[in-house]
Specification:
This protein is α/β, with parallel strands linked by helices. Helices cover 34% and strands 18% of the residues.
Length: 322
């Protein structure tokens, strides 16, 4: 494993030429082959803003494609990897694809945003500067080591990561031209949502929501609320999905008779469904072009998002020219 200092020097030095995209068989600096396979590398990328290595799982494109799909986790993202690999099966879904996959880990309860002050949690105080990392630091490493373009990419996320994917896209239009939200809560300043976010972050490890965006009426909360920033999304390629919270998969009646579905998964997906419908009503009223897809079956869990990503694959590849 390359040291943090070495990775930082590699990532942020001015390189004479960037690494060619698409060389799936080349292990990059700071990376190890992941046990999941499918050419998945787990890379430790140093973030000056956060003062530590950030684990990022990356799959290089097949035939030299220089565009990437960034995939963001939900609230309980693991510390040393992205759940989009083992649970979301993104590398398998994009096997043989000319799209680079970029899947950061360690974003627990972060909303992938720059926090106002160091977070206080069960893990101790540390800086969350995710927007800076994803839009300023990581793209330099990706360009130098994987040949990935800094512009015209796609970003997708689930649940917490869904609203973050939209806000990162509309706040960074050059880097992202496509945004995809799976099972998201897209009106984060709605009545009750501040309380819900506070409770969720507390339950995820003692995180204090006030450390993130400050008080309920702070400018940061408004800036990161997709519902309040629909005008900024014009021209983005948008795909937004949710399910109705019915256990099972489309067309399969068997789960209707299963008495063991996840109560939490049902409730969370139904809330995401209502939030998505609310967002759609406002988007339609304001003339925003976006695609909304709803399923009757599916709860707030990985089988739903694995299926969602498979369904979205063609659209993503088409947008990225892959």
């Amino acid at each position: 494993m390359v040291s943090a200092a070495a990775v930082a020097a590699s990532a942020f030095a001015v390189a004479p030429t960037a690494t060619a995209a698409g060389d799936r068989g080349a292990l990059r600096p700071g990376c190890q082959w992941d046990a999941y396979q499918y050419y998945t590398q787990t890379c430790q990328v140093f973030s000056p803003a956060m003062g530590r290595d950030i684990p990022v799982q990356i799959v290089a494109s097949t035939n030299g494609g220089d565009k990437a799909l960034y995939l963001l986790d939900g609230l309980r993202a693991p510390e040393n990897k992205s759940d989009w690999v083992a649970k979301g099966n993104a590398p398998r879904t994009f096997e043989g694809s000319n799209v680079n996959l970029v899947m950061p880990g360690d974003g627990t309860a972060s909303f992938y945003t720059d926090w106002k002050r160091p977070s206080v949690s069960a893990r101790g105080p540390f800086n969350y500067k995710w927007e800076t990392f994803l839009t300023q630091e990581l793209p330099v490493y990706l360009e130098n080591e994987f040949g990935i373009s800094r512009t015209g990419n796609s970003i997708a996320g689930l649940s917490m990561g869904a609203s973050a994917a939209l806000s990162l896209a509309y706040n960074h239009r050059e880097q992202f031209g496509q945004a995809i939200a799976f099972s998201g809560y897209l009106h984060t300043t709605a009545p009750g949502m501040n309380t819900a976010i506070t409770a969720a972050q507390l339950s995820a490890g003692g995180y204090n929501s006030l450390d993130m965006w400050g008080g309920p009426f702070s400018p940061e909360r408004k800036r990161n609320d997709p519902y309040l920033n629909i005008e900024k999304m014009r021209g983005l390629d948008l795909l937004i999905t949710s399910s109705a919270g019915q256990p099972g998969v489309p067309g399969d009646p068997a789960p209707l008779y299963d008495a063991r579905p996840s109560v939490g998964g049902i409730a969370l997906e139904r809330l995401a469904h209502l939030s998505t419908q609310e967002f759609e009503r406002k988007a339609r009223a304001e003339g925003l072009e976006a695609t909304f897809q709803y399923e009757d079956a599916g709860v707030h869990d990985w089988p739903t998002w694995d299926r969602n990503l498979q369904t979205a694959k063609g659209r993503i590849e088409g947008f990225l020219g892959a």
